[in-house]
Amino acid sequence: MKRFCVAAAVAVSVLSFGAVSDVAPDWGMVSTASAASAEQSFTGKWYDKDGHFVVNIQPGVINSCRIIRTYGITNTNPGSGHYVILEANGEHDMFIQWEGGYWENNTYVEPHISIDGGEKLSRKA
């Protein structure tokens, strides 16, 4: 029993590394704590520069597709990470970058994201 408790404590400390560091470990596993805190930075509906709806990101879901895996998540602003979603035709790996939602030199930096290096999306329709 003592060995099990020690092994469990080591596993928890290793797996929680992503929750306390700026970059989640890249083990091909879901880094829940890192992904969840990063995801909160860009939850909501996003629109292109012409006001057309592009994507809806909610906790655990992107456009009604479940997020099944994340990797390379940075818990910074600006930040980025890979979000793998499960679509009807299989897995889709999306690289999402985000920035904004803070004040800099008395100017508010509007939140924006880009997906796979595409155009910047905003929350304004």
Description:
The protein has 125 residues and is of the alpha+beta class. The protein has one domain (2-122). It is 21% helix and 40% strand. The protein is built from 3 helices and 10 strands, in the order αααββββββββββ. It has helices spanning 2-15, 17-20, 32-39; strands spanning 44-47, 53-58, 61-62, 65-71, 79-87, 90-99, 102-104, 107-109, 112-115, 121-122. The chain has an 8-stranded antiparallel sheet with strand order 1-2-3-4-5-6-9-10. A two-stranded antiparallel ribbon has the order 7-8. The protein is globular, with a radius of gyration of 17 Å. Residues 1-21 form the signal peptide. Keywords: Signal.
Number of strands: 10
Overall tally of domains: 1
Mean pLDDT: 77
Class from secondary-structure proportions = alpha+beta
Whole-number radius of gyration? 17 Å
What is the CA–CA distance across the termini? 57 Å
Q: Bin the helical content.
A: 10-25%
Q: What share of the residues does DSSP label as strand, in percent?
A: 35-45%
Give the biggest sheet. 8 strands, antiparallel
Give the overall form: globular
Number of helices: 3
Poorly predicted sequence stretches spanning 5 or more consecutive residues: 1-34
> If strands are numbered along the chain, what order do they take across the biggest sheet?
1-2-3-4-5-6-9-10
Which oligomeric form is depicted?
single chain
What is the element string, with H for helices and E for strands?
A: HHHEEEEEEEEEE
Signal peptide: 1-21
Keywords: Signal
